[in-house]
Specification:
heterodimer, A: 252 residues, mainly alpha, MetI-like fold, B: 244 residues, alpha/beta, Rossmann fold, 2 domains, 6-stranded mixed β-sheet
Amino acid sequence: MSGSSPQDYRWLSGLSFLVLLSLWYLASLIFQSHSLPSPIKVADVFWQSCVTGELPYHLGVTLLRLIVSFVIAMLLGCGIGIALGQNQTLNAFFDNWLVIFLNIPALVTIILCYVWLGLEESAAIIAVVINKLPNVIVSIREGSRSLNQELLEMAQSYRLSKNKTFVHIIWPQLHPFVMAATRSGLALIWKIILVVELLGRSNGMGYQLHLFFQLFDVASLLAYTIAFVAVIQLIEVLLLKPLDRRALVWKR
Amino acid sequence: MNTLSLTIKEKSFNNSHTQVPAIADFNLTITRNQFVCLVGPSGCGKTTLLNIIAGLDADFSGTINLTATGQKPHIGYVFQNPRLLPWRTVRENIELVFPQLPPHELIDSLLAAMQLTDQAQAYPEHLSLGMQRRVAIIRAFAINPDILLMDEPFVSLDPPTARQIRNALLALWQQRPHTVLFVSHDLREAITLADRLIFLSASPMQAIADVAVKLTAEQRQDDNAIENFRRELFIHHPTIHSLL
């Protein structure tokens, strides 16, 4: 989050990465075990499963589920969060619901969704959304509560339209809260979505990982994990950071 | 021709179960292009009055008539704090209050009048308070308002900066006359700017004196002329002494 690190530390982060790789390699040499493959072996497996198209397929399926459930959760969460932050009666009524939903273990919602809706794609998506939604609502509600009343009064006295007020006065103030919800939300969804797939889908990363577990195929497991981490990093670097930077040019 | 006529029978605030009267039986009529200054002790309800006129506070009994040149009245409001959007540049802040994008030249000329041409693309947080205040004044002037409300816009500025902006405001107003309702607790400032002074009592707020200021533009720049006017004011209206 700290933005661009000073040039001097660039080589250090590269070095630390190399050290981690060599430690892994050393450990695999020492233990010589099937359950701790060397980085070279993992890279080979990674390449093979890319060539066969297996890894891209399952990763793509998971990504698609992630995008759909993320978008639904964010849209619903922003709407509900803004409403709760602005309306005290509504908030007093729904606060208990929020606390309950925040505390239901993810596994329980997933199982309930599959039991009630069947082993369907929609059940998987709904399970992820229900897990993510309370978090989005809570952080957007915080943002909606802390809206600057002075600026809203300014908008009102200049007779700005509702649309204009939302886009130019409310949304920029919510932006940091939306970004926080996006970041924590992505991290949460990544973890939940695998469990959802493991329990009730026949494709996707979660399903594959379950398969590798049954086969004790640690090399494939690690190869998939690396692909996974790489995609998250790409989203962070290519999407979230530029969005942050663009939105904050005005900061002193 | 009247721009504003208002009657406030009662305006009170709820202060933990008791009703505290803020304004009672207050009448005000302002003619077109008059520069009216409301002078009174702090906390007497001046800001409340402006908020009522601006439509920010509808919880009062009484009537307001605001004559509009267009379909509905345009109100320019310069708050005590500049209330600029920190995520928009100076120019974007001014453009925001227009229903349609205004001509470039209009904003350019106003920026020039307030000596802010070089700051057009700057963000408010990179500007000094004095500059931000000037942007807020431009924003209020730019929409060509039927009435311009100004709530102590020069408070907490150092005297030279305040003076400079005051002169710029006066020049702007002489160039483009508008109906102005200006709130102040600084009598010298009020005399410098206004052509009509209304003195207000502490709450519940009531008008206790209504004085015309007939000074030329040159006299308004002259500290002695202002001081003389002030002295005479106290002789003719001894009651205002207790307010200031």
